[in-house]
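Field reference: "sequence" (input) and "structure" (output). Example, Erythromycin 3''-O-methyltransferase:
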Amino acid sequence: MATRDADASRRAIMYGSGDLSASKLFSGHFINFGYWPHDVVPGRITLDQRTASQADLYREVLRRADIGGNDAVLEVGCGIGVGAALVLREFGPQRLVGLDLSDDQVARAERVNADVLAAQPGRLSFRQGSAFDMPFPREVFDSCISVEAAQHFEDLPGFASEVIRILKPGGRLTLTTFFTTADDSAQRLAPLIETIRNGVDVVTPIGSFAETLRTTGFEPVEVESIGEHVWHGYDAWMLHTGYENHWCRNWFRAYQDGRLDYYIVSAVKPAI
């Protein structure tokens, strides 16, 4: 328990007073690795292209989420809320709620998106809360999305149980982040990647997570690798920003070695 508490404290600082979005690895208030075109070239990447890559990761998730105009959508791990605003603007759900564990992130989300909140009252809102104990009644959302947040979830079965509880019958979970490719991969990755070694990232085998979703009651469960559009571009951006010898470059090396990959996972709550 002491180790888990220490890991949670590190995350709280990273996303709270540390404001990870201010790191030069990210831009535009997003906090994700990005979805990149094949022809990205180190040294020729602009800040606008970096921001676009992060918005495009959201779009890839949303294209698979099949969101309709009458839908209520929950984003788990919404961060500063720029992704939530993108969902509302480009995919037009009736209502979107962003949930984040960090009070600081929720406060930032409300500041950054103040114009949207004022212009469209009731359509966008932000709540503080845990992915394992969501502050919502049963069966109130048509869709649940999560973009590069689940690598921090220490209780994926608890998360899956909460998602299936808050989704309406026929509702869909669409999630993207990185997972390991084998049961022993996390142990092999710890010496290479600081956030895995110190417990900030709790990487899980992708097969284990897919089975957790099925055991929880989701069916079908679909897993799609998108690593070819994530790791090369992110590594190119790190080179561009002066991280030549930083441990962060080991993400790409681990992908090349087949130890981890980046996935979009889709799972449906049965309609009956």
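Residues 222 and 266 are 5 Å apart (CA to CA).
Residues 2-268 form a domain with the Rossmann fold fold (CATH 3.40.50.150).
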